[in-house]
Amino acid sequence: MTAELSPIDIAKFVAAKRAVDYVEDGMRLGLGSGSTAAWMVRCLGELVRDQGIKVTGVATSTRTAELARQVGVPISTLDEVKWLDLTIDGADEYDPNLNLIKGGGGALLHEKIVATASDQMVVIADVTKQVETLGAFPLPVEVIPFGWQTSKALIEEMLGNLDVLGNTASLRLDHDKPFRTDEGNFILDLHLRHIPNAQQLSLVLNQVPGVVENGLFLDICDVVVIGNADGSVETRDINNGTVEREQIDIVDTDNLFVDVSE
Questions:
Q1: Which DSSP string do the residues of 5-17 spell out, in sequence order?
Q2: What is the DSSP secondary structure assignment for residue 66, as one 8-state letter?
Q3: Angle, nearest 10°, between helix axes 198-205 and 148-159?
Q4: Beta bridge partners of 123
Q5: Mean pLDDT of 201-224
Q6: What predicted TM-score, i.e. pTM, was given to this entire model?
Q7: What is the reported pLDDT for 256?
Q8: Which terminus in the chain has less CB density within 10 A, N or C?
Q9: Binning pLDDT at 50, 70 and 90, where does residue 259 land?
Q10: Is 156 a catalytic residue?
Q11: From 93, 111, 142, 213, active-site residue
């Protein structure tokens, strides 16, 4: 069945498979959202099923929680487990310092809370997500629905005074209605193209009335695992300053390639 996978799916799968090597028996795990994280949850379910490891997962979205239960990964809440040993999640962009843009799937608030409540964050991605400077991917900002147009206008005014190439924000839609996060909030996507000072931007954005959180994940990620279509992976550890490359065997298993909803 692996022959049916696209090159990008192979890259996501091998990154996910390598990332679960960080999982140890008894860990409390943050489970990310999105298509790459879905492969990780499947790989984790295989570990639970075939190796009998015991873990507790905290999902960053309802879709991730549903998938985890389908593949046999026990789910709890962050309030119940208090703190996490490890979070594994995807990213929309990452730079050489492992700063990230996240939130393309709309789960950035839960993802940031879970990631910062973890001893370690491992990001899984394919090479297309790598950039020299953040900003090509639209930056998601979660805002409350009340007065969202005012928040949007304030953000655009603020962006005009910063060193970014674009200063427009658009409301994310779900068909003809505003997209709603799991918390019932809206998402504004900022079309910046280039973010030379992400720390400054993050601080300023979170001071705008109505903004709940932004999709800049700065100084949070410890390791990025980069998958390639040929089955190879590159693991970059920002704390140890190491880069490792290896080849991942792609073997069909009923658990990984079963058609489960995400």
A1: S-HHHHHHHHHHH
A2: H
A3: 150
A4: 89, 224
A5: 98
A6: 0.93
A7: 54
A8: N
A9: very low
A10: no
A11: 111
Burial of 177 (0-12, 13-18, 19+ CB in 10 A): exposed
> What one-letter code names the amino acid at 243?
V
The CA-atom distances, in angstroms, between 149 and each of 4, 98, 186, 210, 250 are 44, 32, 11, 10, 48
Residue with token string 């298509």 = 35
> Which residue reads 């949007």 in tokens?
152
Cβ(126)–Cβ(11) below 8 Å: yes
CA atoms within 13 A on the CB side of 50: 10
| Residues, the chain | 262
Give me the mean pLDDT over the 60-80 stretch: 97
**H or E segment at 224?**
strand 223-227
What tens digit of pLDDT does each residue of 155-180 get? 999 999 999 999 999 999 999 999 99
Indicate the average pLDDT of the chain. Answer: 94
Measuring CA to CA, which residue among 86, 105, 115 is closest to residue 35? 105
